[in-house]
Description:
By secondary structure, the protein is an alpha/beta fold. The protein has three domains: 3-78, no CATH class; 87-97 and 367-473, Aspartate Aminotransferase, domain 1 (Alpha-Beta Complex); 104-362, Aspartate Aminotransferase, domain 2 (3-Layer(aba) Sandwich). 43% of the residues lie in helices and 18% in strands. It has 20 helices and 18 strands. The strands form five sheets. A seven-stranded mixed β-sheet has the order 5-13-12-11-10-6-9. A five-stranded mixed β-sheet has the order 2-14-15-18-17. The longest helix has 21 residues, at 32-52. The model has no long low-confidence stretch (mean pLDDT 92). Pyridoxal-5'-phosphate (PLP) binds at residues 166-168, 194, 198, 239-240, 242, 272, 274-275, 306, 317, 408.
Amino acid sequence: MNSVEKSQLFRELPSVDEVVRASAPLVEAHGASAVTDAARAVLARLREEIRSGPLDSSSVHIALQGLGRAIEKQVAQSLSYSLRTVINATGVILHTNLGRAPLAGPALQHIAETAAGYSNLEFDVESGERGKRDVHVDRLFRKLLADTGALPQDDSKAISTIVVNNNAAAVLLALNTLAEDGEVIVSRGELVEIGGSFRIPDVMAKSCARLREVGTTNRTRVTDYENAINERTRALLRVHRSNFEITGFTERPALADLAKLARTKNIPLLEDLGSGSIVDLRTFGISGEPNVLDSLHAEVDVVTYSGDKLLGGPQAGLLSGRADLIARMRKNSLFRALRVDKLTYAALAATLLAYIKHDHAAIPALRMMRLTKQEIAARAEALVQELRPTATKWELEMVDGESVVGGGAAPSAVLPTRLIALALPGSAADWLSARLRRCDPPIVARVEDGRVLLDLRTVFPEQDRAIADAIQSI
Length: 474
Ligand SMILES: *Cc1c(COP(=O)(O)O)cnc(C)c1O
């Protein structure tokens, strides 16, 4: 369509005022401002579709006939929740923008059971006295450690766990408690930024600890840490690189060697693990990812990690480590400011209990990691077969690809998958992916090489139907 024809179509669109005047019952029910906003949004969308999309004269006329219904739908949508379910067809399992880990069934159930009424959140039922909210997670974590043999038998070295709002808060609390007005030694190869607002040097500054950089971007040795230790040193900090890799001429001390140095000098070793898996990821075909239990085994004094990354639970920051250090952290008034609510405790406890029961299948993130390429291919094939007879204008193809673990697992943590490649001749892939996002529920796909790609690894099987329906409706 040329630009003259397009401007002709633009002129056929009614004005916002005309649409509002034609929607008297809606205005009566919801007020003029809601209907005006809806009219603006719907007309802007039509204009955009004429400008960039496949709308020709006849489809514009059809759209105009349905304008009343579209406005009604838009008003209803503006009065509904803005936080809602989306279908994650990106294949990124722990997608920060899509809410990271989906919660396990038992976690949702436990939230519903305990949060709808009163609970013993800070109440010792046995003694009838005030209790601590930490006990609910601490107890389970000890059990988990005991099961894996990672818990030191020596009581003085018992491991405690506390919970704060997220891992950024956990790092802040750990640094402020142990190193306020002192120095913390970090390798130059580990001064990371995680998604914009979390940068190690900035968190360090906010904690009132001074950053002491050692080594170089690519190589840091134990002796670099050792030479930097002085009377102001309060901690050694090791940071998981999470979202990048350094390859080539590189060197980094083994965790155990760093722990040995820390013990000799009587300075605590902190490790910001980020993702914090508590299972062996090699069984999922992912190697080289550190693990909370390995770090505690290596006698790191305190590890910090997220609840909603590889752990597969709610948003939270966990601090696990030497009981005496954790006790100091829970006495810090920052802990009170950063603490989590009963919903988080309920979800976290249920998630940890699933690990203790070896019920890994209950945890959606782990379940998605376990899916084989063959299982995903079978579902994708079924979906394509179902669509072929009706979605005749579509180009549907199956291609090999990779799913991404995400959420601060190393960027190389990928899993083989089978993708559905979608194309609609005459429409750009960006238009198509935007159109999929406007479905209900919105479908979030990947766009690569001018094609829209759907990875069913991160789609719940019960959502396959909604994807088929959505494609047929476009
Ligand atoms: C993800 C991550 C963080 C931030 O964790 P949040 O739970 O998002 O606050 C901090 N450090 C590392 C190494 C991470 O991977």
